[in-house]
Design a protein that fits this description.
By secondary structure, this protein is mainly alpha-helical. The protein has 3 helices and 2 strands, in the order ββααα.
Length: about 150
Amino acid sequence: MLITFPSNSFTQKRIEGFLVDTATPVKLSRLKNNILIIAMAATFASAVCYFMWQYLEIRREHKELLRTKEQLTRRYEEASEKLVESQRILERLRTDPVFVEMIIRRRLGYAKAGELIYYFETPTDTPPLPSLILSETTPPVPPPPAR
């Protein structure tokens, strides 16, 4: 940017009938140059900060996507294993009559003619047997006498 001083009679010449200003251009002062450099450096620093922030956001999102990919891969493998097991069971149900009979007996509770099925229920309100024997209300059992 060039600045010229106001015209005076010493810097003006008449060329082909026109009055022309012949003052030499003066460079910006050192202070204005420093202000311009600081403004450019601040603009550059803010641009660097903005792009660094964008980079960190993208990196965080990338890590999150990798975790999601690992979880989905694990779920896919588990589902594939479950599918293979289901296909194996289905094939046995189609071809193995002994397996079909076992499934019918266990899951549906069917029995052949003349068979009896016994169901044993586990009591839920009474404590297990060892704690009944050694409860706090019963005295401890004395050791057997020595002979």
